[in-house]
């Protein structure tokens, strides 16, 4: 029964990937393509979750704001570092900043509700708290592998770097969700991450030449920090509270 339910979530993930493939060829601007695609996908996953998966989507945390901020410290620092990097680009065009807001919101809402809310939440309900770290990694890995769709328009190396960063971010956001009991924190972090990239470059892909040695070091460091932080946030003494909040076996 557990394997069957896990297979359903796996098929759900593949189904969503299949839906995303043709959207890259829509005759729309990048902003409009993201809006149409992600809003449509968000509606689809909410309907499927309501009718088939039944993963609980948690938004209202029982903890104080400051406790949630403390738990989210590493992702917050990560976003601040990105902001510092963007600031070196110089003043950003107002129209580019404004245009980045709506697509960043749509991306963050769809991807966090799907990967952290439904995939992570659904697998936890199937396998229980004993497999918490494994499920956290698997859900984050699926999030990372989804970025391989970018191979349709960019190089393997650049896509690999993005997938590695996505795995690191996925681990951090998953741990924060489990500890805060609220999807608002991963959604906010994801929004700021994508908003800063879109506002700075007008694209979620790197706009210029890449120094591969530096990129390997950065991506590797991201992943190591994410693994250590996730292990600390989900350490054994915290798992009982997570088990109770998410009603896990």
TrEMBL record:
Keywords assigned: Membrane, Transmembrane, Transmembrane helix
Presence of the UniProt keyword Membrane in the record: yes
Cross-referenced PANTHER family: CAAX AMINO TERMINAL PROTEASE FAMILY PROTEIN, SLR1288 PROTEIN
Name of the protein this chain belongs to: Type II CAAX prenyl endopeptidase Rce1 family protein
Pfam families tied to this protein: Rce1-like
Keyword Transmembrane applies: yes
Family classification: Belongs to the UPF0177 family.
Sequence ranges assigned to domain CAAX prenyl protease 2/Lysostaphin resistance protein A-like in this UniProt record: 95-196
TM ranges: 7-28, 34-57, 69-89, 101-124, 131-149, 155-176, 183-204, 210-234
Domain of life: Bacteria
Extent of the signal sequence: none
């Amino acid at each position: 029964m557990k394997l069957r339910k896990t297979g359903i979530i796996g098929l759900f993930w593949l189904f969503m990937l299949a839906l995303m493939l043709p959207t890259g060829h829509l005759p729309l601007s990048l902003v409009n393509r993201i809006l149409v695609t992600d809003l449509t996908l968000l509606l689809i996953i909410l309907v499927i979750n309501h009718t088939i998966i039944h993963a609980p989507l948690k938004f209202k945390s029982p903890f104080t704001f400051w406790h949630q901020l403390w738990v989210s410290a590493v992702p917050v620092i990560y976003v601040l570092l990105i902001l510092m990097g963007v600031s070196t680009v110089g003043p950003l065009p107002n129209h580019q900043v404004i245009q980045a807001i709506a697509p960043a919101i749509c991306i963050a809402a769809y991807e966090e509700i799907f990967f952290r809310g439904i995939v992570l939440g659904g697998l936890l309900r199937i396998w229980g708290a004993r497999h918490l770290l494994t499920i956290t990694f698997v859900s984050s890995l699926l999030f990372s592998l989804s970025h391989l769709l970018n191979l349709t328009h960019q190089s393997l190396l650049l896509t690999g770097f993005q997938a590695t960063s996505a795995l690191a971010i996925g681990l951090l956001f998953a741990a924060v969700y489990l500890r805060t009991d609220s999807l608002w924190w991963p959604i906010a972090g994801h929004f700021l991450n994508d908003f800063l990239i879109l506002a700075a470059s007008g694209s979620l892909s790197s706009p210029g030449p890449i120094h591969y040695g530096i990129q390997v070091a950065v991506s590797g460091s991201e992943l190591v920090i994410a693994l250590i932080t996730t292990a600390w946030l989900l350490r054994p003494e915290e798992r009982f509270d997570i088990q109770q909040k998410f009603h896990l076996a």
